[in-house]
Amino acid sequence: MSAKAALPLQMFGRRLVHLRSSVTSQNMSALRLYSTEKQPEEATEQKATESSPEVEKLTKELAAAKEQNAELMDKYKRSLADSENMRNRLNKQISDAKIFGIQSFCKDLLEVADTLGHATQAVPKDKLSGNADLKNLYEGLTMTRASLLQVFKRHGLEPLDPINQKFDPNQHEALFQKEDKTVEPNTVVEVTKLGYKLHERCIRPALVGVSKC
Question: Residue 188: which domain range?
């Protein structure tokens, strides 16, 4: 083979060797890149796999803590409501004790008012003009009773005069029935004794007569 014919062959061989070297170098670079990229992914997957039980445990503990917190909050709200109700009941009892503590004393004074009322009614009205002493006595009784009723009113004690009202068993005590066509049945047509209430509480029912049904 001549030198001119061998020269192209040598150049082709050199190109082939260079090409193989280049391909091998690229493959190695790709392999290294693949290995470098894959290692973090595998490490992440392995780490996630290893941490899954711990995450699950923490999730369960968090759920249990939330449930316990909800139960404690519910108990706290119930206790707070119970305390508020108890405080309101106690305040009402104290208020009632202040208001109705004089109830028995008021009942005793009612007898005095009744006596003054009976005495006033017993005075013959037709003789007042001709008897100055009787007139002064009548006026004195009337003024005394009026003053006593004013004291009652200042302390929340007021009379109950249910004439012509519908009979109420909570405030009235029926002593008898009476025929009366001018009113509806079960109406108070006569009051023999006034009732009294202390701050809207009836402490003595009125003694009454009612119309027949």
Answer: 157-213
- Tens of pLDDT, residue by residue over 114-161, are 999 999 999 998 888 889 999 999 999 999 999 999 999 998 999 999
Residues pairing with 175 in the sheet: none
The CA distance from 116 to 126, in Å, is 19
Q: Which candidate, 139, 90, 93, places its Cα nearest to that of 116? A: 139
CB of 195 within 8 A of CB of 159?
yes
Distance (Å, whole) CA 34 – CA 207: 110
Matching residue, tokens 């009784």: 141
Asked if residue 198 lies in contact with residue 100, where contact means CB atoms within 8 angstroms, the answer is yes
Q: How many CB atoms lie within 10 A of CB 17?
A: 10
Structure token pair of residue 109: 């004074």
Distance CA 202, CA 116 (A): 21
Do 163 and 212 fall within a single domain?
yes
Instruction: Indicate the pTM of the whole model.
Output: 0.56
Residue 80 lies in a domain: yes
Question: Angle formed by the axes of helices 103-122 and 132-154, to 10°?
Answer: 160
